[in-house]
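Students often ask why we bother encoding 3D structure as a string. The short answer is that it lets us treat folding as translation between two languages. Here is a chain of 138 residues written in the first language.
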Amino acid sequence: MTKKRIQIDTSINAPVTQVWDAYNTPEDIKMWNHASDDWECPSSENDLRVGGKFKNKMAAKDGSFSFDFEGTYTEVTPNKSISYVLGDERQADITFQEEAGKTNMNIVFDADDTHDAEMQRSGWQSILDNFRKHVESK
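And here it is in the second language, the structure alphabet:
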């Protein structure tokens, strides 16, 4: 069965090197990696290389629920692109493109079979919007 692919994107008012670093540095990841203000990312590990793994803990601030969002990198081209596969074999592909001092990011990922596709798109887009705000406030 072919997985449904979902696409999200943003334009960040910062050079690609700054965007790349903020996207891949665990201390930064903990600051932006949540879909809403009642969630947080209390821990992040990132081994950014082909075959390397990442693990970000996503947790409700009230302590009611948490999970690890983790995967393995399949492609890493510094300041250009990242691809990874999640534990359930879903894939995500991210591109970074600098244009006139701004960085355009595009993420395409396989939808899971459990949640509504629009809910997944909205959640991932909210995280990406938090990321944009984090970078632009640095």
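Translate back mentally: The chain is about 25% helix and 45% strand. Keep this in mind for the problem set.
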